[in-house]
Amino acid sequence: QVQLVESGGGLVEAGGSLRLSCAASGRTFSRYNMGWFRQAPGKERDFVARISGNGALTYYADSVKGRFTISRDNAKNTVYLQMNSLKPEDTAVYYCAADLVYNPSEYTYWGQGTQVTVSS
Hints:
The protein is built from no helices and 11 strands. The relative contact order is 0.32. It is mainly beta and 120 residues long. The strands form 2 sheets. Strands 2, 4, 5, 6, 9, 10 and 11 form a 7-stranded mixed beta sheet that branches. Strands 1-3-8-7 form a 4-stranded antiparallel beta sheet, with no helix packed on it.
């Protein structure tokens, strides 16, 4: 069982930056591949980025490539999403997720989400 808690969301102006954190419970964090997703009001949940258990592999949605960076600190059981050059269309609830599979069809564990609002 893995419990995930996101933090770091907030209100920022367009062009600004935020860093989201996702803290995981358990002693086997490095076994889990982690993903970030987001869901805007009235829209489906979208994939944002993922990272492998050892941090060697990352992958990004085209909409955030070059602006967002996913990373992890296995000693701290935490995965991060550094978001730069934010745009109003990045406004959403951001969720982290964990799975033993690198690119699963559906992640097994989810956090409760953190709101990111980008003003124009």
